Amino acid sequence: MIASVPSDLPPSLSASAHTCANNLREMYNVVNSNTEALIESSQIDTVVFDKTGTLTADTQSLTSIIYPPDKQHSKDFSSLSQIVLAGSHSLIGMADDEGKTSLIGDPLDLACLQSTKWQYNSHEKSAVSNDDSVKLWQIRTFPFDPTTKMSSAIVLVKGEDGAYQLFVVVKGSPSKVSDLVDNEDGEEKQQSWYDSKVKRLGKKGFRTISLGALDVSRTSLTELLFPSGLPKNESKKTLDTSIHKARRLARSEVVRNDIEMEHSTLLNRKEMMFAGFACFNAPMRVSSSRVVNDLKDSEIDVIMLTGDEPYASLAMASKADITKGKQTCLLKTDNSRLVWKIDSKARHFSLKTAKRVQRQVESGESVLVVTGNAINSLLSAKVKPSKATQYVKQYVLPQTKVVASASPNDKSLFVHWLKNSCNRQTLMCGDGVNDIKAMQQASVSVAMLGGFGQEVVEEDTEDIRRKERLKRRLNSSNGMTSSPSSLDQAGIGDSVEASIARIRDGINKGICRLENENNGLPQHTTVFDIGIDSIKVEIQRFRDMRKGGTAAAKILAQEDRLRQSMESKSNTENELHEISDEIQAGESCLASSFTLLRPCISGVESILRTGISSAACCIAIYRTVALNCILTSYNLATLYKNGLRYGKIMWQIELWSSVYTDNASFTALSSPRPKLVAGARPSKSPFHPAEVVSTVLQAIIHIVTLTCAVNTGKHLESKYPTIPPHKGFSIKWSNDDKSPSVGGLLTTLVGSSSNTSLHSDTDSVPKSFFKRTPFQPNYIANNVFIMSIFQAAVTTMVNHSGKPFSIGFVESRQLCLSVCSIFLLCIVCISGRMPKLNSFIELAPYPTKASKVALLRLLLLNVSLSYFAEYFSMFFFR
């Protein structure tokens, strides 16, 4: 039995996962760097999404700036907000091959700078207003910190009057900036307006950023950076020298807490001036709500995990269909104490309130939103343990739909708690560096690329592609072929027609350039050279697409823009190149098992569907190999026991049938279902009770039916012998004085199937000592051969999981043809309708109709009982 185990079993299991990963790459544009994660994704029951750049587009636009009521018409106040937006960023300039410089960095910083229309010089780190009246230089910048939720900078500003001032500017979360803002005059009234405005803007779906600024021209900070005083009417060289020295001192002497800490001694304990709310709009991706609904329909819990304010996060979660409750139950911290806020009404954190919240959330009346600080307080045991905290952790917190205002540590803590304390298989999908910690704690991590530009697509293109793939699959399963589409003819896609169209287009463009005098081509270039170059470009495209990464994402984005231009009948070829060059891998790609190459979270659903089919494929391989090993061992033992063997053609046919059916089954098993099915998950292990019971029962059924077939063959052999009786080795003494010849002895030693003796008559037909006895067709070999190939086909058919994990048996045209052709071969061989075929295979013709019917009944009984064993074990043990 050990000898019957195929030596390539481990590589075949690895190959199944790699095949599924390759399908995931080619069909759904998802790159998998860890095949173990693909198998693990089959058991996912909770999906956690980041908001900005994941559910929403990665580009943001500043729509408006909201000023306090008493400052709305102040020109100086407006100029102050412009200084904050233009100075508080950490953008850097990158030059391309043509020498053009583009700014890269945080999309929020880029949107802030673009809204001011100031011209930024990345080399000087300076910005000039649109009318050249105001100029600033960045002395020291601190990029956005996910922990403090702020970014800040020290800037030197030259005003319209030519005077120089030193400012500290900050922008960040309203709750964090509020601690730095001066609220002494009418503190309660100012704070009430501040909080209500943040809440109102959040409910509208805006991402609200608070702006703050402080004139530090007469503080210790100025004395530190400019010992000789602020610049005055100085030459450019002297000014550059002064700024260079200030930057050097700032890098060595100033840290973030010196300007972001409340009552800083370096700022002479001054408080900042509030400079307004910057309202950003990040549009929801068209496919987000569809994917979320598909996940929820398949009984997968969906949670939003973000660093934005609670009400803005809740508004976007509602747009994505993550939440649907009418009321909001917010759990947050107030002065390090946990408090409930139910529909804007504060409630004490008590066991009674927690039970009320649980009832409302379970009934669907309310949506549970938890802040990052509350998560940290509950899960890090920062609050005093009580019945209320234990009840919330055990019954209320698992029903959370939105976690807002969360730092990277809060995200990591929450995902770790979901995975370990709640025993949930979690998938984390994010795009930024602040998601890395949470992605490392998740069971499966998915990263998105950034830089796709402004997404104005009003149609769910991923859903259209999914329907096109399903249509092509149905056509191929029905044996139908479709003519090349307009997209294929335009060179869009990975089909053969699209590749030919791209090569043809490259040749046509090369010929046009060749006809021009100033074409930039090397001398002596011919049309043949142009054709070779076009083929090389197509080969390079194929390699980039297979490898994945930013190169593949750029190709896909370019094809998307071209598809949109075809639909809108507009030519955007020049714009495509500029947009696609911005696509780049984010930091989250370094910590993820999967990378989505398209700006769409539908890849998450594709990962789950492919993971389910991959796991089901591995389980099916284990079961099929186990059964085939048992049956092969029994078949060989049966033939050996009866002193029989197969004919040459029998071995070839059995090998062909096995390879044919296994390949068809493997192809179908590695193809995922077009949509997730609720509650459909394969077994976690081949040693699951349902798998073991089914395998054992099928093995027993196959062995019993094969034994019956062998006994039937023996009975036919005894009644209708096809092999002459074998007397074995014997020595007969002759009556005469002639001694036995050496040839007769050798003939006896080889075990001839005919009567052998040492008479000298056998010398007339000498046989080689090393030559096997010729194969004689017999009923036992007949039955073993027919039952063997039939049971192999039945094993493949019964253990093909199919629906709801992958392509079903009836849906796979190749699998149906392979199994049915083997069944038909067995029936034809038994019936004897084609004597030439039986003679070619070396089968003995069955003597009576009763013997044929008996064998056919065994075949029918075998397949029926095998299916019964499968459904019995799945019904009672899964």
Summarize this entry quickly.
The chain has 878 residues and is α/β, with parallel strands linked by helices.
Radius of gyration (Å): 38 Å
Number of strands: 21
Strand content: 5-15%
Strand order of the largest sheet: 1-21-20-19-2-13-18-17-14-15-16
What do the pLDDT scores average to?
81
**Ends distance:** 29 Å
- The low-confidence parts are 477-482, 569-583, 726-740, 742-770
Structural class: alpha/beta
Given the structure, what is the number of helices?
31
Fraction of helical residues: 40-55%
Report the sheet with the most strands, covering strand number, pairing sense and barrel closure: 11 strands, mixed
General form: elongated
Secondary structure layout:
Layout: H1 9-28, E1 30-32, H2 35-40, E2 46-49, H3 51-55, E3 61-66, H4 75-87, E4 92-95, E5 101-104, H5 107-116, E6 119-121, E7 126-128, E8 135-145, E9 150-158, E10 164-172, H6 174-177, H7 187-203, E11 207-215, H8 220-225, H9 236-253, H10 256-260, E12 273-281, H11 288-297, E13 301-305, H12 310-319, E14 327-334, E15 337-342, E16 345-348, H13 351-363, E17 366-371, H14 372-379, H15 387-396, E18 402-404, H16 408-420, E19 426-430, H17 436-441, E20 444-448, H18 461-477, H19 486-489, H20 496-515, H21 527-547, H22 550-568, H23 573-580, E21 594-596, H24 602-641, H25 648-669, H26 689-719, H27 742-749, H28 779-798, H29 813-831, H30 835-841, H31 849-877
Parallel strand pairs: 2-13, 2-19, 13-18, 14-17, 17-18, 19-20, 20-21
Antiparallel strand pairs: 1-21, 3-12, 4-5, 6-7, 7-8, 8-9, 9-10, 10-11, 11-12, 14-15, 15-16
